[in-house]
From TrEMBL:
Family indicated by similarity: Belongs to the HPF/YfiA ribosome-associated protein family. Long HPF subfamily.
All copies of domain Sigma 54 modulation/S30EA ribosomal protein C-terminal, residue ranges: 130-184
Protein name, entry field: Ribosome hibernation promoting factor
Database matches in InterPro entries: HPF/YfiA_ribosome-assoc (IPR050574), HPF_long/plastid (IPR034694), RHF-like (IPR036567), RHF/RaiA (IPR003489), Ribosom_S30AE_C (IPR032528), Ribosom_S30AE_C_sf (IPR038416)
The protein's assembly and partners: Interacts with 100S ribosomes.
Keywords per UniProt: Coiled coil, Cytoplasm, Ribonucleoprotein, Ribosomal protein, Translation regulation
Gene Ontology MF terms: ribosomal small subunit binding
GO cellular component, as recorded: cytosolic small ribosomal subunit
Gene3D superfamilies, sorted: Ribosome hibernation promotion factor-like (3.30.160.100), Sigma 54 modulation/S30EA ribosomal protein, C-terminal domain (3.30.505.50)
Lineage of origin: Bacteria, Pseudomonadati, Pseudomonadota, Alphaproteobacteria, Rhodobacterales
BP-aspect Gene Ontology terms: negative regulation of translational elongation
Gene symbol of the encoding locus: hpf
Role of this protein: Required for dimerization of active 70S ribosomes into 100S ribosomes in stationary phase; 100S ribosomes are translationally inactive and sometimes present during exponential growth.
Major localisation: cytoplasm
Length: 192
């Protein structure tokens, strides 16, 4: 398991790193799906410490949580408790997912872009209809079943997830959280 524990403009001591490693190992030891990567980033915002934690599991799923507290250890412990709650909630589904999948989740590379917003005034006409690209990055699109995609979206706390449906040879699918609380699924391969 690979750990990356860092701080944004603050020093992270060896004692905190040891605490993070031992707590993460204890927490994920209770659940299926061994972690492959653990990313923990600490930062200071006014009088509070913020902790953002992301764990990539061998099953292809990602669990993430963040918390803010006045103590740096308490911030990590709160984020860790949130992740444990997520894993506990999905424990049965994680076991089923791990048992069904003989091969690791396949990831496809794709380009990801951040586009500039409308600017100060939305009343102004843009000079061109071509959007301005602010940043270009690489992203990975997993091959999952629809159930796994919904679980991944909920574990990540994301409003939308793009994935390749492993039941179909081609095409990209999308699951998203609807305003009414339900989950929407876009499958372009079944369009008539």
């Amino acid at each position: 398991m690979r750990y990356q524990i860092s701080g944004k403009q603050i020093d992270i001591g060896e004692a905190l790193q040891t605490h993070v490693r031992s707590e993460v190992e204890e927490m994920v030891g209770k659940y299926p799906g061994r972690p492959t990567d653990v990313l923990v980033v600490f930062s200071k915002e006014a009088h509070e410490f913020a902790c953002e934690t992301v764990i990539h599991l061998s099953t292809g799923l990602t669990v993430q949580a963040s918390a803010k507290e006045t103590d740096i250890y308490a911030a990590f412990d709160s984020a860790n408790a949130k992740m444990e709650k997520q894993l506990r909630r999905y424990k049965r589904r994680l076991k089923d997912h791990h048992r069904e999948r003989a091969q690791p989740v396949e990831l496809s590379d794709a380009a990801s872009y951040i586009l500039a917003g409308a600017g100060d005034s939305e009343l102004e006409e843009p000079e061109t209809l071509q959007p301005m690209i602010v940043a270009e990055m690489q992203t990975r699109i997993p091959s999952l079943s629809v159930g796994e995609a919904v679980m991944q979206m909920e574990l990540a706390g994301a409003p939308v997830l793009v994935f390749r449906n492993e039941k179909q040879a081609t095409g990209v699918n999308v699951v998203y959280r609807r305003d009414d609380g339900n989950i929407g699924w876009i499958d372009p391969n079944t369009a008539t």
